[in-house]
Every structure is written in C-alpha cells, then in structure tokens.
Amino acid sequence: MQLMNHVREVNRESMTAVVECGINGRELERELERYGVCCGHEPDSVEFSTLGGWISTKASGMRKNEYGNIEDIVLGATLVTPTGTYFNDRRAPRVSTGPDFMNLIIGSEGTFGILT
Fold first, then answer.
1. 56 SS3 class
2. Residues with Cβ < 8 Å from 65, sequence gap 6 or more?
3. Are 6 and 19 in contact (CB under 8 A)?
4. CA–CA dist 33, 38 (Å, integer)
5. 59/86 Cα distance (integer angstroms)
6. What is the rounded distance in angstroms from the CA atom of residue 64 to the CA atom of residue 14?
7. Using one digit for the tens of pLDDT, what is the confidence trace for 46-90?
8. How far apart are CA 53 and CA 69, in angstroms?
C-alpha cells in the first residue's frame, strides 16, 4: 500500500480526483494544493493515516461541518476481493437507482476486500 500513494487525476471542472488509497493525508493535501483544490477531510491522525484507512473505518474529520465525512466525499472505489475486483465509479453526487454498494464498502474495515 505504501507505493499506492499517487493522485492520478484531478478534474477542476467537476471538483473530483482519482487518488490511490495508500496516500496519507498530508501528502494528499500537498498534491491537491498543486491544482488549487483540497480534500477537506482532516481527521486527528491526518499526517499518519491513509485515504484507504479513512474509507475503511468511515472516518470523520475536524472539518466535517464544512466538507462532510468521508462517506460524503468519496464517489467511487476499487475493491479487490478474494473472487476478483469490484469497481464502482460513481462520478455523480447521488444515485437513485437500486442499492448503493458504496455503503457496503465505506466502513467495512476490510471485511469484503482491500481498497486500492
């Protein structure tokens, strides 16, 4: 996971980013700052914890009233499971068709697989 620490894409028009789960909070903010944006999620452990850890534990940050909790920020994820890879690319803020599988991933603490 330590090598999975890159911001792969930033779209300023839609205010979204594609980020690997091994990046820690300080690295994430430093990389996003290059594009003039921020993540806004700031748990107490921001300099030590990773994006994947935040998602897996359904973390809450000190700026949640302004930016929301991690479940409000994450739009999609790739989960590697024992039987294959599950990819949920939801680049829209809300889904109203069927179950939202992100609710199973966020906060699952690795029960269903590993976030990448």
1. helix
2. none
3. yes
4. 6
5. 22
6. 20
7. 888 999 999 999 888 787 777 778 888 888 888 888 898 877 766
8. 13
Closest C-alpha to 106, from 75, 64, 81:
75
The number of helix segments (H) and strand segments (E) in the chain equals 5, 5
pTM for the full predicted model:
0.84
Residue with tokens 């700031």: 42
Q: Which long-range contacts (CB under 8 A, 24 or more apart) does 108-112 make?
A: 108/56, 109/56, 109/57, 110/56, 112/79, 112/81
Burial of 9 (0-12, 13-18, 19+ CB in 10 A): exposed
Residue 113 half-sphere exposure, CB side, CA atoms within 13 Å?
A: 16
